[in-house]
UniProtKB/TrEMBL annotation:
<keyword id="KW-0813">Transport</keyword>
<keyword id="KW-0679">Respiratory chain</keyword>
<dbReference type="GO" id="GO:0006979">
    <property type="term" value="P:response to oxidative stress"/>
</dbReference>
<dbReference type="GO" id="GO:0045271">
    <property type="term" value="C:respiratory chain complex I"/>
</dbReference>
<dbReference type="InterPro" id="IPR016488">
    <property type="entry name" value="NADH_Ub_cplx-1_asu_su-6"/>
</dbReference>
<keyword id="KW-0472">Membrane</keyword>
<keyword id="KW-0496">Mitochondrion</keyword>
<keyword id="KW-0249">Electron transport</keyword>
<dbReference type="GO" id="GO:0005743">
    <property type="term" value="C:mitochondrial inner membrane"/>
</dbReference>
<protein>
    <recommendedName>
        <fullName>NADH dehydrogenase [ubiquinone] 1 alpha subcomplex subunit 6</fullName>
    </recommendedName>
</protein>
<comment type="similarity">
    <text>Belongs to the complex I LYR family.</text>
</comment>
<keyword id="KW-0999">Mitochondrion inner membrane</keyword>
<dbReference type="InterPro" id="IPR045299">
    <property type="entry name" value="Complex1_LYR_NDUFA6_LYRM6"/>
</dbReference>
Length: 137
């Protein structure tokens, strides 16, 4: 499926404003997950991600992002998160992001880019240790 075909198929995917119940909101989450998984091959092709990740790993990243919000029970909040997710998916499929954004956000992950600040003050003078403590987060 080419970029245009994927963008055209996602053009009509919308999230309705109000879920009547938690069960309905969760059903919409599953539908969003299916739509996202169907878009993964297109995303892999658009951003040339075959050399850094496979489809299974991207699917796991999407799944973990959805599971991160599994504790939410308010249907309105779930609908809002679905709207944000749908917008993110549209931006990705329409190539509104650059390759390094996708790699940083979904391949490496948010925790993968964090530097270890504790190792900077090993073997340094007391002056530098105090300097690091006072000027870093």
């Amino acid at each position: 499926m080419g970029e245009r075909a994927a963008a055209a198929s996602l053009k009509f995917v919308t999230v309705q404003a109000n879920s009547a119940s938690l069960a309905e909101a969760r059903a919409r989450v599953f539908e969003f997950f299916k739509t996202t998984c169907r878009s993964i091959p297109t995303v892999m092709e658009i951003y040339n991600l075959e050399d850094v990740v496979n489809e299974s790993q991207l699917r796991s990243a999407v799944s973990s992002e959805i599971r991160r919000h599994a504790h939410i029970t308010n249907p309105k909040v779930i609908d809002m998160l679905l709207q944000k997710g749908t917008e993110e998916l549209h931006n990705i499929v329409q190539h509104s992001k650059q390759r390094h954004h996708i790699i940083g956000q979904y391949v490496v992950g948010q925790r993968g880019l964090v530097q270890d600040l504790g190792s900077k003050d090993e073997g340094t003078s007391d002056f530098l240790k105090n300097f690091y403590k006072s000027n870093y987060f």
